[in-house]
Predict the 3D structure of the following.
Amino acid sequence: MIEIKPFKNKVWLSSPTMHGDEIKYIEEAYKSNWMSTVGFNIDEIERIVCEKTGCKYAVALSSGTSALHLAIKLAGVKSGDKVFCSDMTFAATVNPIAYEKAIPVFIDTEYDTWNMDPVALEKAFQIYPEVRVVVIAHLYGTPGKIDEIKKICDKYHAIIVEDAAESFGASYKGKQTGTFGNFNCISFNGNKIITGSSGGMLLTDSKEAANKVRKWSTQSREDAPWYQHEEIGYNYRMSNVIAGVIRGQLPYLEEHIDAKKAIYERYKEGFKGLPVKMNPMDLNNSKPNYWLSCLIIDKDAMAKQVRGDNDYLYKKEPGKSSPQEILDALVNINAEGRPIWKPMHMQPIYRMNPFITRKGNGRAMSNAYIKEEVSDVSMDIFNRGLCLPSDNKMTKEEQDVIIEVIKRCFK
Ligand SMILES: *Cc1c(COP(=O)(O)O)cnc(C)c1O
């Protein structure tokens, strides 16, 4: 019998894990007075990330979001343009499109990897053939259907911006994510697979693009004796101190992935016999980085739940449960779970934006939600799924307790 009582120390969803070298490189920056957005740590991590991913150029920036913003600018997105993008993702995937006053058009999700559905993407091109840019994210560290998406993008002469913020270290058919699009982003935010506390990078094979990003991210200074500007600039470059943290973390990327993978496997094993599935992955074609472990409750084992922005209700039903009941049970033992990313088409800020499913205009179908005939995939996964505590410092014993608590939700 596993004893259930709250953990003394909170078990986090995903928190930073330091190893010691980070402080050495921070100190190097400090002692040499390279406390700036120039310095050896920055040069080193750009070199190492190129070597690791196989991309030709990497530019260290202040965040993954700033990398995505400059990627959108590189892609030539202009005010009023429509841009196709993943729907079930973190808002940072799509906000940079709005920064440029363009219009995100959300593409529904598929069930095989929980990423952009190529069938819905094809449909979207039939409806909006003028679109030239597609932003794809690899959710929770699982690569999406890259070949299928690339094929469609080639057919419609669209370029890809890849948001590999969650999937650094994951690969698809032997190639690292962050190298499939024309302009790509990774993130070193505090809860990612490795971290700088913050930070991100733009990855590209185009020298011209990399140079533009170096210029734009440092206020777009022209070659002149004074501060001369011909383009709008940004203060987006990474600090050499942050780069020191990342430099210390990079050698531990594989170790972190192994730990996350072990967590995923233990959940999978522990949930045998329960009416749930883990977040799906295509292991024939891809090697995920297992950043977050998630589960989805089988349709016929879903107890009734109603969720509003500020409160929720759920029913206790024998043999069934709901994400909200499980999230509450996790809170009770001092562990952190999280709902699945609320799809962008369901966000108040983007409620007027087009949303395309396999069947076409998904907005028309969203009305069916009121009649409880959920018909888009994003919404279905959001309703039935949740993210589990996936911290790589969680002990096996703590995870056993978490698994037991979830089992009891289905009693
Ligand atoms: C974390 C994240 C980002 C943004 O990265 P920051 O470094 O936090 O700006 C972008 N997209 C996705 C999918 C993310 O998870």
About this structure: The radius of gyration is 22 Å. The pocket of pyridoxal-5'-phosphate is lined by residues 63-65, 89-90, 92-93, 137, 163, 165-166, 187, 189, 200 (CB under 6 Å). Residues 253-409 form a domain with the Aspartate Aminotransferase, domain 1 fold (CATH 3.90.1150.10). The chain has a mean pLDDT of 96.
